[in-house]
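Hey, I'm writing a tutorial for new members on how sequence and structure tokens pair up, and I'd like a real worked example in the thread rather than a made-up one. If someone can provide the structure for the chain below, I'll link this post from the tutorial.
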Amino acid sequence: MTTPAANSTLWPEYLKALRQEVVPALGCTEPVSLALAAAIATRELGRPAERIDARVSANLMKNGMGVTVPGTGTVGLTIAAAVGAIGGDPDGRLQVLKGLTEAQVANAKAMIAAGRVTLGVADVPNILYAEAVVHAGGDSARVCIADAHTHVVRIERNGQLLFAAAEEDAADETPYDLQGASTRDVFEFALRVPLEQVDFLLEAAELNDALSQVGMSGDYGLHIGATLKRQSLAGLMPEGLMTEIMTRTTAASDARMGGATLPAMSNSGSGNQGIAATMPVVVVAEHVGATREQLLRALALSHLMAVYIHSRLPKLSALCAVTTAAMGAAAGMAYLLDGGDAAVNMAISSMIGDLAGMICDGASNSCAMKVSTSVTAAWKAVLMALDGTRVTGNEGIVAEDVDNSIRNLGELACQGMQQTDAQILHIMMHKRASA
């Protein structure tokens, strides 16, 4: 297969994006963001917290209220704040809760039971925002994280400002610019980048496959992956590559959302997105007997394509971003099956026509269902592309040009689904209040 010479001017931005957006994360990143704020605040306080007041943005509330926090067996943001304050590593970033002890978890639950942890929705313009104020005696410390899951923007102690991020740094800790990117350039980058520059992506295969194996035990979440595997062995589902992609990918999400104490390799701030961008590629690579180089280039293509598409979306929105991560996986799978950039573009176009309406109604065990749906759609789209067919530019929001289709999807998420997002949160909060 030959391709035109790559436009390498954006390669430094691509590498920066991969380094920033593909990182290990333990647990759902929204509650983890609040746990990190609480851990840093407790360090600034200088002694154990006796009381915690937490506030988060509406979108972070939606994504954190129903997901299990690793090592706790408990769902929600209050437990995340409590264990973050009591046992969190303030330098741990997205692995802030690594190494929690049973005693720390028990103390956190006792703090919550005593009514010493409060949680509310912050009136802030930020889509992603987490704030923790910890108290002991007459002292307090406040930490605010905004716009990115680990981006600390403000630290106070006893009302005195200790740190404030520069306004121009509010969007990203390490900014990168993908405005000039295209699917074709992403494809060429993945095929031509020196392997030593992206070999860290092999850790994505290792971490997420380990989660998948744990999830196949059937002990976590809704155990969807394990259930589907049993039904396949019982003859109720056909055995084969599609079933293997679906079960192994879904099992990793089962484990992550069900509180397993193993990290996932995330993508764009989400472990589930990292799983969706990784596991289908791993399974297909095993099936075709891919070399190390082929697997690595497929992972680079999948993860960077997922980052590129997600860069057109809000950080958090009413659109389930597992769908866009699975578009990256479709690109990686198409490459492994000897499809060129045309097949990649066709598969992504079909997926936009198929999955654009899937909503995000918060992080929870049922996210694994959306993962299974998304990666199955990705495989279907790849098979269509290899046969020369796709959803065309005459249908719905899909355009003839795949990059225009991606922009259309971004406009839908950024502008068209704001009221949907607010309504989802209203329903979730009302349901909780009346349960």
